[in-house]
Amino acid sequence: MVEHLEETPEDDSESLLEKLTADELEEKLNLAEDGGLDEEDAKFLEEYRRKRLAKLQEEASLAKFGQVREISKSDWKNEVSGAGDAYVVIHVAQRGHLLCNIVDTHLIELARKFPAVKFLRGESALCIPDYPERNLPSLLIYQAGDLKHQLIGPEAVGGKSITSKGLEWRLAQMGVLKSKLTEDPTKRIQISTITGRSTNRLGRRDYLSDESDDSDD
């Protein structure tokens, strides 16, 4: 594969190299050092390794959060401004509030899955005095110290049927995180629910039809 890089477009070559493990790539580089590849291919491989290493280092530097931390009103400004260019998602919540508890659970999962995003939680009564309960749960999303997005209230965060993937999709659509989801998972739930209801109605109609046929006999 690597022996014929000069015959392959650069983008295609990089695509092929992406499939190599770190050990396989190192093996190819050792082959280049031993003179097993021509100079052009050897330079290409070395440049690719440099880019790949830089990318891995960048990802590692961003992956520095990984959990949901509780904050108070006095922490708010420093936690937001101290995150650099990373997105900061603050869940304004209330203990004992059913939907807030559900969102808490989902955010813990998302924090582990997307450690480059800073997830925080603040009790509404402590962080924003007199905050209306009808606005709970709320997600306030910051970047570089500025408020970028707000999800205020039950419907905005996904309602009672909210799932971790549904919340992931919402945040991905706002550019907060990079998700592998290709479609809104809540659509599948809606379609499934509608299909189930239609089947029940159809079954009911068939049942009534059978009763009618029996009575005619």
From TrEMBL:
SUPFAM superfamilies: Thioredoxin-like
GO cellular component, one term: cytoplasm
InterPro entries: Phosducin-like_chap/apop_reg (IPR051498), Phosducin_thioredoxin-like_dom (IPR024253), Thioredoxin-like_sf (IPR036249)
A Pfam family matched in the record: Phosducin
One of the protein's GO biological processes: protein folding
Record domain Phosducin: where: 13-179
Record family assignment: Belongs to the phosducin family.
UniProt name for this protein: Phosducin-like protein 3
